[in-house]
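MODEL INPUT / OUTPUT PAIR
PAIR INDEX: 1
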Amino acid sequence: MTTRTVDTTQELAAFLRTRRERLDPHDFGLPSRRQARRTPGLRREEVAELAGVSTDYIVRLEQGRGLRPSVNVVEALAGALRLAPDERSYFFNLAQQRPRNSDKPATTAAPTLARLVADLSPLPAMLMNHRYDILAWNGEMARLLLDFDTLPPSRHNAMWLCLMHPDIRERYVDRERIVREGIAHLRSAWAAHPEDQVLTDLITEFTARDEQFARLWAERDIAVNGRGRKVMRHPDVGVIAVQFEVLMPLQDPDQRLVIYRAADDESQSVLDRLCAR
């Protein structure tokens, strides 16, 4: 048996019909009509009114006439049809559009992820959002970097620490590369979250206060680093090389789980000694 490739136009049409038909008119406060409804769910004209488009447009979409709705129309229809987050993503994929990032950035750690960070001991681990705010960490990460509780919450930011903190500034052996990679990630996050004023303010602060940041930001490098290597000079135990991995939970895509592992046997010995202190 062979499976045909997806015909996105026809699948989008069928998806819209099924989602319209499953809706209960009473949930929308629609007035009762003397004429009984012959099909379940909302009528096409009702969906059109809720979404702010013409009934003819809904008809053509549901008949698979090859229309490609704009981002604004997809957003409006997703709201009118009360799509769940996973359904909304599916709808945007079928329409070959990219959803706007309308969700507010994570400012606190999801409880299950905070527990996971603690459970990952003895591996150093922390949880960040897209702007590098550090939301949760375990004891091993605090020993490797610093006791984050000694800083005000507004300074729980990995990029700020790398650029501004007097101890962390000198912690990385290859600081130029670390800063360059961080800026390339930050620029990607900035483009994906244009409404995030806190992120914009951070970038403005970094540009004004750090010449290296201003120079590298102007180069417009773009990259999202999901794994890599860092070499650090720890003031108590010496040089430690770590491999890092960044994971994004499906249920909390704005939160990033960062896990460090020793890159070699010597670094593992140094890390064990540090965590045992």
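PAIR INDEX: 2
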Amino acid sequence: MKRLALLLFVGFVFLSCEKKEDGLYEDYQVAKPLKMSLSEFKNGVDVIAPMPIEESGKIYAYKDYIFVNDKYKGVHVIDNSIPSSPKKIAFIKIAGNVDISVKDDYLFADSLMDLMVLDISDIDNITIVNRLENVLRDNIIWPAQADFIEYENINYETEILVGWEIVTERRLKTDFEERFNTIDFALAESANDASVGQGGSLARFKIVEDFLYAVDSHNINIFNISDLENPEDLEDVFAGFDIETIFSKGQYLFLGSMSGMYIYDISTPSTPTFISEFQHGTACDPVVVDDNYAYVTLRGGNACGATESGLYIIDISNISEPVLKETYSMDEPYGLGIKNEKLFVCDGASGLKVFDKSDITDLKTLDHFKDLVTFDVIPLEENLLMIGEGILYQYEYLDHKINLISKLELN
């Protein structure tokens, strides 16, 4: 009996201490650096057999092919000649890659600070034709959604940072409260052209005629690609802070940033000129545009800021003075797209929402695909592409809604 009492007492003390300790800890999002050696990075581009995707990134459509970014690792190539039965056919390994753009069978891709040029005219024999070194900047996006960032575990003399992995770990609450005292903030530093592919609203690359525009967090990086095999790196244009996305319409570029939308005139394509801006609270911010309006999704919360999540519709009929016209509440919107009078919004875990935008003051819901996680869309001429959590969806347009025609598991 004494032994049992002793065991019960010890167990009680242990549980009490554990419970007391639990009050000191909490689960936090921790960003761990993804690294490789400098030599591995320089030789980090290759074309291999199809493989499972690890983290779905952006999508890009060109001719009968779909390219799906595997964040920081490369691009999955999908044969979409039969939309009801798409097939993975290759994986292009590109260290640190998050964006691509294609013109006349030449694929341009970022590899951290380098710009890669690949010939995809023979999709079964993709070849590397050029590498422009140190022409892109600020290309590793600071993991704003993380509570802790383990940046100190990088040896820049022998290693290179190619991305971040976010994991959940228990950490002391006091460490969380004091984490900003030691951070080194210096570390945080066209669809109508058949020859050019089409990206989604989250793209940072955009080809307009003979120019490739690539935005980083502060600049528009400009390349003359009239000689597709030998892009000319032109003078960058400083464009603001926390720039995330780029969209083009006619002679204008629309840049989505965490604090607003910037509009640039590219009538002289080598030197984009600032026209105007629309400011909003801090939030993640992709943008798409039709003739009179810009449609912007703002995603608030820990990852992007304090702004409430929503859809903002901005009147750009006077391009020099954009004016907010309407706002609609959303849960956690990411990418969006437009096709004629249809507006598609990827609302994260709340699914894909389809609206009739004929009257922007009264958006009508046409469809709502629930129970799936959505990231970005590309409205093509014949069908709609959507990337979710490791899944590529395709829909056909109907008069007043859309209909699922295929679903490709990428894992």
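PAIR 2 NOTE: The chain has one domain: 30-409.
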